[in-house]
Design a protein that fits this description.
The chain is mostly helical. The chain has a domain at 28-69. It has helices at residues 14-45, 51-64. α1 packs across α2. The relative contact order is 0.16.
Length: 80
Amino acid sequence: MRVRAYRFRAYTSKTTARVLKTQLEVACKLYNTLLHAEKEEYERNKRTMSKNELETARFGFEKTEPRVSGAAFAGYPTSS
């Protein structure tokens, strides 16, 4: 069986590129924050965090990170 691979080039506008870069930065920061919290919890109590505890930590992150709210559409011009 042959496997075919395709490559696509996305030609984005500057606005779209900026929005995607912001989303990636926020996602990386969130991942690293939750990973750090998970490591600290394991070092302190020798147990991993539950899904509910991670969700609570995520909401705490969203309150402290101003770029998270509405980051999906930040920078896009409104249609009105």
